[in-house]
Design a protein that fits this description.
Length: 215
C-alpha cells in the first residue's frame, strides 16, 4: 500500500486540526498545514518569482500577506518532501484547488460537515488562559471554576478572534472562498462527506475507515 494522500476540508471549528493530527499519527504520514509549511520554508529563495521580496520571511517581517503564488510553491515543496500526507487548510480557493491538482494526486478528499450553529457554539465557547495559554471550552472542556485556569489560576479570556461577530465574519469568508472548493470536489465525484458533529472519536473512526479504503 502506498502512503495515503489525504485532503481534509471543513469550516473553521469543524475539527480539521485535531483530526489531521490523529490521522497523521495513525497512518504515519505528514500533517501539512500552510502555516507550518510557511514557517519551515521561511528562507526559501523565491527571487526567481515575480514577487516583491526574495523570501517568505521578508513578507512575514513586513507584516504583509504572503502572495498566493508563493504559498502554492511552499505547499508544493512540503508535499514533495512528504511520504504520504494529510493536507489541512489548503486549498482555500478554486485557483489553489486547480494548482493542487497539477502538483499531486489525492487519494481521498474528506469534508467534515458541521452546521453553522454548531460551528458558532464551538468557536465562541473557546477560552484561553491569559497567563499560561491553556485552552478551554465553556461547554466541551470547562475549567473546574468558571473563568479560572485549572493549571495556574490565571484568568480565562475570550480571544478577539472568537467573539461572535468575528466568528460569523470568519465563517462568511470561508463560505465565499472555500465552499466552491467543496463543490468542485463534489462535482468531480471524489468528495467523501462525514458527519462532523459526532464525538471526536466517532469522527476519527469514520475518517480513518475512508482513508484505509482509499489508500
Ligand atoms: Zn493558566
Amino acid at each position: 500500500m502506498s502512503e495515503p494522500h489525504v485532503l481534509l476540508l471543513g469550516a473553521p471549528g469543524a475539527g480539521k486540526g485535531t483530526q489531521s493530527k490523529r490521522l497523521a499519527d495513525e497512518f504515519d504520514i505528514e500533517h501539512v498545514t500552510t502555516g507550518d509549511a510557511l514557517r519551515a520554508n521561511k528562507d526559501m529563495d523565491i527571487s526567481h518569482m515575480d514577487t516583491e521580496y526574495d523570501t517568505p520571511r521578508a513578507y512575514m517581517e513586513a507584516g504583509e500577506l504572503v502572495p498566493d503564488e508563493v504559498v502554492n510553491e511552499i505547499v508544493k515543496t512540503a508535499l514533495q518532501e512528504a511520504d504520504g500526507y494529510v493536507l489541512d487548510g489548503y486549498p482555500r480557493n478554486l485557483d489553489q484547488a486547480e494548482y493542487l491538482s497539477d502538483i499531486t494526486d489525492l487519494d481521498v478528499v474528506v469534508f467534515l460537515d458541521v452546521s453553522e450553529s454548531e460551528l458558532v457554539d464551538r468557536l465562541t465557547g473557546r477560552r484561553v488562559c491569559d497567563d499560561c495559554g491553556a485552552n478551554y471550552h465553556v461547554e466541551f472542556s470547562p475549567p473546574e471554576t468558571e473563568g479560572v485556569c485549572d493549571e495556574c489560576g490565571g484568568d480565562l479570556i475570550q480571544r478577539d478572534d472568537d467573539t461572535e461577530d468575528t466568528v460569523r465574519e470568519r465563517l462568511r469568508v470561508y463560505e465565499e472562498n472555500t465552499e466552491p472548493v467543496v463543490e468542485h470536489y463534489r462535482d468531480e465525484g471524489v468528495l467523501v462527506e462525514i458527519d462532523g458533529e459526532g464525538t471526536p472519536d466517532e469522527v476519527f473512526e469514520a475518517i480513518r475507515d475512508e482513508v484505509a479504503d482509499a489508500a
